[in-house]
């Protein structure tokens, strides 16, 4: 549409170039935004997967009557500890 207007003389070359540049900048920014959102989604999916694995392990071990070294290692691999200095949880 814009190139047709430029060819027909409805848009000056200068105006066409400005609009074209804005379009290219907007496309570049949208591409960057999509990449960032994809990284955030991947990070959340990883967290959800870890949470699901932990819950499966907990449910599996809740049925056990005795605490074995294997159970302890599995639980320790998934436990979270709170850092009193920072107020947030961290992997142990």
Topology:
Elements: H1 2-8, H2 13-62, H3 69-78, E1 80-83, E2 88-91
The arrangement of helices and strands along the chain is: HHHEE
- Total number of domains: 1
Q: Strand sequence of the main sheet, in spatial order? A: 1-2
Count of separate DSSP helical elements: 3
**Biggest beta-sheet profile:** 2 strands, antiparallel
In which range does the helix fraction lie? over 70%
Sum up the overall morphology in one term: rod-shaped
The averaged pLDDT comes out at 77
Please outline what is shown here.
The protein is mostly helical and 92 residues long. It contains three helices and two strands. It has one domain (2-91).
Description:
There is one protein chain. The protein is mostly helical and 92 residues long. It has helices spanning 2-8, 13-62, 69-78; strands at residues 80-83, 88-91. The protein has one domain (2-91). Helix 2 (13-62) packs antiparallel against helix 3.
